């Protein structure tokens, strides 16, 4: 556990993540009919991405929730961020490439709407749109956007 905390601290010091404020709403409108079968409906352009239908939300403390997607046989990148009070913190794409190893793509612009009432019930119901630095090809937009509906564990 102490090595995890050390690694966590080191990563945050090395990368200048762009945090952004949460827009809290009373009742988030839109189509969340995907939620009985999956926790994420999204689209993205990033390397080695073939789709994602699930996101985990794990409570670390009263004020901090870690959110992350999982890689699979076809998708080797994950979306990761923290909800800390009223801020999305350290949003990033982590790529574990079969061809070029590990890379982190830092969010340079983002917005998220979170349903306040659902959050009070322990459910993350949100709509988000994030854009990321793309060092290999700055002219090609790297993004991840969509809707989340998941129980916070």
Query: How many β-strand runs?
Result: 10
Question: Count of DSSP helices?
Answer: 2
What gross morphology would you assign?
globular
- Tell me the major beta sheet: 10 strands, mixed
Helix and strand content put the structural class at: mainly beta
Q: Give the % helix.
A: 10-25%
From the alpha-carbon coordinates, what is the Rg to the nearest angstrom? 15 Å
Low-confidence stretches: 4-13
What sequence of helices (H) and strands (E) makes up the elements? HEEEEEEEEHEE
Quick check: average pLDDT?
90
% residues in beta strands: over 45%
Q: Determine the N-to-C terminus distance.
A: 19 Å
How would you describe the overall organization of this protein?
- This protein is mainly beta and about 150 residues long.
- Strands 1, 2, 3, 4, 5, 6, 7, 8, 9 and 10 form a 10-stranded mixed β-sheet that branches.
- The protein is about 10% helix and about 50% strand.
- The two termini are about 20 Å apart.
- Strand 6 and strand 7 form a beta hairpin.
